[in-house]
Amino acid sequence: MVNKPLTLIDGIAFAHQRRMTDEDLAAYLAEEAGRLLLAQREGTALEGAALGRAADRIANAFILDELARWRPDDAVLSEESFDDRRRLGRARVWVVDPLDGTREYSEGRADWAVHVALAVDGAPALGAVAVPAKGRLFRSDRPSAVAREERERPIMLVSRTRPPAEAEGIATMLGAEVRAMGSAGAKAMAVVAGEADLYYHSGGQHEWDNCAPAAVALGWELQATRVDGSPLCYNRPDTLLPDLIVACPELGARVVRYCAGK
After folding, report:
1. Would the CA dihedral through 179, 180, 184, 187 be positive or negative?
2. Residue 158 has pLDDT above 60, yes or no
3. How far are the Cα atoms of 30, 81, 166, 237 from residue 136, in angstroms, in the given order?
4. Strands across the sheet with 177-181, in order?
5. What is the pLDDT of residues 121-147, one digit of tens each?
6. pTM
7. Which domains does the chain have, with CATH numbers?
8. Helical H runs in the chain?
9. Hey, CA dihedral for 1, 192, 149, 162, is it positive or negative?
10. Are residues 97 and 78 in contact, defined by beta-carbon separation less than 8 angstroms?
């Protein structure tokens, strides 16, 4: 179901030959950053917030260095870097979250992710999401056939720290079972993998939280929209992008109708 990721050697070989596609580059960056993060967590005495801060810096430095090397003409928007507003005049912008779910990472959990996406003219053109603690890499350009389980009740994922107030009403409408999970990327990829049917969020995210998950979900022919059904747009002056639905299209349409009628 999940494609074999690039190894570090594969990535360097592609890059030196100047043949690495944008899709391959996103996958390479997400996977290798994930490996660095796993090594950091396993090989340090740091704990808690200090571990999370160190991990954010390490993964961000690696991704930004590689993007500067292989895509020097592109702009970058990263959660962990100064927002260079010159990106607003660029058509191609890499939108990066080096460690989505820092709290979960620092607690030794598995529900954290690495997001690397490329927005082109504001659209989430491509992306890769690594879930390193589970050994998974999802690419927007390599969807796999997923045998979606026929469940008696659909599974709806929400934030474990900031569940939306309306989640209970949506779950009642759908007859869904609500489960809490960390990391937007981990939740979205659970839907992509067929382990859940809907991820709903409102109340605050930024572009780096959902660009790569949205790109992957769209590449796998799932719905990835705002809660009103409108497209997700990136590289805007205000990076706040507060709400998101990633879902099987039928369920997503029902949630959009429900939200419109509230």
Report:
1. negative
2. yes
3. 10, 26, 31, 32
4. 177-181, 155-159, 198-201, 244-247, 223-225
5. 999 999 999 999 999 999 999 998 777
6. 0.92
7. 8-139 (3.30.540.10), 155-261 (3.40.190.80)
8. 8-16, 22-42, 48-70, 102-106, 167-174, 184-192, 207-219, 249-261
9. positive
10. yes
